Amino acid sequence: MRMSISSSTASKPRHQPVWPDPVELATVVRRLAAGLPLVLPAECDTLQRRLAAVADGQAFLVQGGDCAETFRDLSLDTLSRTMDTLFGTADQLSEAMFRPVVVVARLAGQYAKPRSQPVETRGGVTLPSYMGDAVNGIEFTPEARTPDPYRLAQAYAASGATLNAVRSLLAEAGATGGGRELYVSHEALLLDYERPLVRTDPRTGTRYSGSGHLLWVGERTRAADGAHIEFLSRIGNPLAVKVGPTATADELLALVERLDPDRQPGRLTFIVRMGTDRVRRVLPDLVAKVTAAGARVAWVTDPMHGNTFTAPSGHKARDCAAILDEVTGFFEVHRALGTHAGGLHLELTGSEVTECVGAGVRLGDLSQRYRSACDPRLNRLQAQELARQVSELVTRLGALQLP
Fold it and tell me: Domain range holding 277?
């Protein structure tokens, strides 16, 4: 695999915490660099082969989990419920599509979030914004909101514990005849966490991230000459990029050149998050031009982020009807172009939260069980209902291009 140009060409990283003590940060970085990788290169290679099938239309991807993991919710019950929800969603879709579904969780590393503003003001008091448990605490106090580099080590430990539990649950399922594969992914936002966890594969000499099987960069950090893309270009893991409605085909082609110069199926996934009012208008040009250029990427829809609104109660919310409409538009675009609608990327939980509207949850219900540390998630019933509706959509439209 050809690797990218020198890191000296990359711009200064965006959306990074301002750590108050560089000595403490250096201590934590050394600790991370000395630790064991959380995932292995061979596992990453297997996932890339699975995603190659997605890119070629032979499989479908379901990627989902928490918007932002929290240390307080680290429990076997929560994990088991989320895994059951993901696999249940995958099973419904696999049956409708007559093809395997690759399951990737937003799990074991999704402890950081970029924020629109670096600070937050309440009642005349201004403090750093909450950037996820790997950086600071959600409580609005000076002590909690001060970035703490030791939280990076805590995130590493929590991710390791989560992966141990995932592997145990998968082994238990396999012992009873229900063998499953589950891969983990997260946004590679905090470079002070990601860089020290890169390891060299002794089989090939290729560098891999040991923090997760699949890493993605978000809409805010996807600049082709940016530090986050530079970091991803130097690792052998399968990669993804979130793509919003302002993206241009030239920008996506530049990302292909940086991240997948050898045009390897499964190497690069574009996760499009347009919003229901723009997906049908913006997406066709992007897909057509990237496909015409010979890029063999997987196209996945994130119907959550472009459909967020603020409810009268003040809660951030999403409407299941809008989520389904964006999925429908995504499938319609690919059907019209003769390309492959490759998957769904969802923020969901197995818990019975009330954060999205629909499937029995009304606007007035949001405050009952709103638990998210950041963005609203589908609950178990809502995820199951979406999977049912997408299955009907596939049957009705023939939305996937069958091989």
Answer: 26-112+152-397
